[in-house]
């Protein structure tokens, strides 16, 4: 089975594709206030979307 991902935004409105297995880590990072230096760079596992979320394509999406 291949890894699952979800899309999420940071506090500045930037979109990322995140592995579901790293959701807890992502949410902890996303909760850091924007003015805190730790929030200035997204975690390595977060794949930035270089434009609108519509530029991301899916095959066989699962909507809970």
Evaluate the radius of gyration: 12 Å
Low-confidence spans? none
Query: SSE order, as H and E?
Result: EEHE
Strand order, main sheet: write it out.
Answer: 1-2-3
Number of helices: 1
Largest sheet: 3 strands, antiparallel
Helix content: 10-25%
Multimerization status: single chain
Number of strands: 3
Please state the structural category. Answer: alpha+beta
Descriptive notes:
There is one protein chain. The protein is of the alpha+beta class and 64 residues long. It has one domain. It has 1 helix and 3 strands. Strands 1-2-3 form a 3-stranded antiparallel β-sheet, covered by helices on one side. β1 and β2 form a beta hairpin. The radius of gyration is 12 Å and the shape is globular. The mean pLDDT is 88.
What order do the helices and strands come in, and which of them pair?
Blueprint: E1 5-9, E2 15-19, H1 23-30, E3 47-48
Antiparallel strand pairs: 1-2, 2-3
Short summary of the structure?
With 64 residues, the protein is of the alpha+beta class.
């Amino acid at each position: 089975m291949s890894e699952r991902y979800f899309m999420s935004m940071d506090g500045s409105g930037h979109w990322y594709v995140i592995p579901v297995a790293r959701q807890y880590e992502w949410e902890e990072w996303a909760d850091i206030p924007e003015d805190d230096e730790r929030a200035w760079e997204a975690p390595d596992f977060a794949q930035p979307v270089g434009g609108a979320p519509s530029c991301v394509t899916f095959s066989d999406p699962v909507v809970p």
